[in-house]
Structures are given as C-alpha cells and as structure tokens.
Write a structure and sequence with these properties.
binds manganese (II) ion; two-stranded antiparallel ribbon; 10 strands; binds beta-L-rhamnopyranose; 10% strand; 47% helix; alpha/beta; single chain
Length: 432
Amino acid sequence: MATHFQIDDEFVSEQNQKEKAWVDEDFEHLARKLQRDGINIEDLVARALAFRVAVPSWGVGTGGTRFARFPGPGEPRDVYEKLEDCAAIFKLVRSTPAVSLHIPWDRPDNAATLRDFARTRGLHFDAMNSNTFQDQPGQKFSYKFGSLTHPDRAVREQAVEHNVECIEIGKVLGSKSHTVWIADGGNFPGQIHFRRALERYLESVREIYNALPDDWRVFLEHKFYEPAFYSTVINDWGTSYYCATALGPKAFCLVDLGHHAPNVNIEMIVSRLIQFGKLAGFHFNDSKYGDDDLDAGSIKPFQLFLIFNELVDAELNKLPNFNPAYMLDQSHNVTDPIESLMMSAVELARAYVQAHLVDRAALSEAQEKCDALMALATLKRAFTTDVAPILAVARERAGGAIDPIAAYRASGYRKRKAEERPAQVGIATGIV
Ligand code: RM4
Ligand code: MN
Ligand code: MN
C-alpha cells in the first residue's frame, strides 16, 4: 500500500510547545487546590493515563439519518483507511489504541494482514460486531422478519453462522469478545409471539456462545425500539440479564447509552449489572430523544459522570467480575468524525477522572446520616472541578496532543485525505 499521510510525533510536539504555558500554569494551580483536600494530582494523572476506550470502525465514516447522508471529504473507503483514521485519533488522544470492527462492513480479505497493518500503527482490536440487521448481496435468506429469532430455522442458522464467522475473524485479529445486537422485533401487535421469539433467541445465541474460545466473552446488547417500533426481542437490561445468566459465565450485558427509554436511570442499571457480575461494558454516545448516537457527553454530561461514579466505585471496591469494555458507538452526521471521536474520548476520560475525585468517605457518611443535600454536594463538587489540565498533561506525557482538535486542524489531515481518497459513488460508510 502506498505511503499515506500520517501525523508525526515531531508535529505533535511542535504544536504542544504553543500550549505549554497555560497547561503548566493551570496544572500547578489545580495541584495546589487538590492538595488542600489531600489529593495528589499525580494519582489523577495516572488514572487519566490508564483510561482506555475503543473506537468503532463505523464511526470514522460520516453517518446519516433515515432521510439522507451527507458525505464529508476524504472519508475512508475501506477498513484499512478506517484504521488510518483510528491511528490519527490514537496519535493525538492516546487513550484509544483499540478498534471495534463491524462485519461484514469491515470483512478483511486477509485477517492476518489487517492485524499486522493495525499493529504497525500501535492499534489492536476490541470486540467484534455482527450484522444481521441488513441483507447482504448474495445472501440466501432475508432478515426482513428477523435473524436469530426468525420463525424459520434456516434463517436462524444463517444468522448463527454469520456470528461464528465474526468470531473466527476475531480470533485471527486478536479480539477477545463478540457483541451481538439484533434488530429482531415487530411493528405491530400480534406480529411476534414474545415468549417463542425469546426462546428462539436463547437457542440461537447458545450456539454462538458454544463457538467462543475459552478466553472470550460475548456481549448481549439490548435496545428498546428501532428498527422495530412496537416490540423488540432483546428490549431491556432485564431480558439481557436473564439471557446472559441462562447462557453462562462468558455472557455479559452491554449497555449502549442510547438504548433506553427517555429518562431511565441508566446509572442505576449500570449499578445493578455490576452488582450481579454481568456488566459487559458500554457503547458510549449521547441522546436527547432516542438512539441518537450523538457525541458522548454532549447532551447529558452529568449522567455520564454519574455512570462513571458507579464504575469507579466498583473499581475501587475491586468487585468480582468487574472488567468493563469501554467502546464508543456514535454516528457523526454534521461533524468531522475524527474530531467527534477525539472529543468523545476526552469527555469519557474527563468523567472518569472526575469520578475519582469524589470524596467517597464523605459520600458514605452523608448516605449513612441520610443527609441528602450533602450527598449531592459531594458529587457536584467532583463534577464541577475542571480537570482539563490533568487530561492535557496526561495526553502530553503519553506523546499525544495537549489540544487534540487544534493539532488535528493544524495538521491538514482531512485535506490530505481528501486528495488521497477521491470520493466513491455509493460507498456505505457509517450508519445510514
Ligand atoms: C445499533 C446498535 C449496535 C450498532 C448498530 C450499528 O443501534 O447500537 O451496537 O452496531 O446500531
Ligand atoms: Mn450500540
Ligand atoms: Mn444504537
């Protein structure tokens, strides 16, 4: 493959020189402020440095709505170009060395070649994702009326086989988990027999489970509606939990933040799954109305913080079976996807570090004394602390950019890619 433009270390450090003055000043000030509360800022820098979130391959292409997709310049045209963009994100923010692939969108001709391509860019592969919500050219049976839960056994078998293929590809890539999200459901009352559909789901997903290598996990992703508008087979965390429990110790429940009814207390769902030892991890995004797939932290940053508050509480208490996989799952319709993904990764690190700022002894005391106001104040104190200097210093120390968006814009990456990647007609990148 011809050499393509990449952002190099020298450029990043040149850019950082421009930002250095304010970062050092703000960092020192914050260090002194935290010290007054007995917090060593270096502990928080270490937390920020350790934070990881996987980037979705489908997130680097421009997304769309059911009305239209407005492609951006220089969009990646294949999985290799998607990985180039993921490498650019990783170069600047440093917290995103893993990529989550979607098959067949990203089906490689040769998985070992793809793995090596990723490795030379410091990338590796997170969870695999199957797709039985679309028909592919040449496919024998249609998923119009379902996949893993379709009444026709032949359709179910085809869908199981596809999932097994994803695991096979993932084995070569070095992935250790597989996410199953199905669109199965009904638009009309009576269309689906609820109980029978769930029985069929369990039967199908058990076959996928049996194909998992010993050190793999399967993530069951629920979603309460869409594309089905009346009923969905795996509609909520309760159903997901039931299935994960029925399947066995390698099955866990994945929480996509956009897959809940409006106003649901998601942090409490997260806490329940942690308590039951069944939290797989997340598809982070944000939403106002439905599965909007907006950028993480853009609409409800306090909710994001409260979710991380539960996660950090579990981490500090070393709860069993707590090993959440963090992934982004977003659709970027009006922004440069690389910028959105960088900003989202930063927002997650922010919530994570802020959650580590919570005075847990004070919170417990307030809870024991039924002091509701002080409990909230304790959380708010952490949430309103500006940890930006901690995040910037962590990025810089890891070789990334103090200001990733500014550095990305200054690099001219998008313009260079627009030249390297002339638009192709009819290419389907991103979620449409
Ligand atoms: C779904 C769900 C899945 C994602 C697809 C593209 O709504 O969030 O995780 O793979 O969209
Ligand atoms: Mn998702
Ligand atoms: Mn979704």
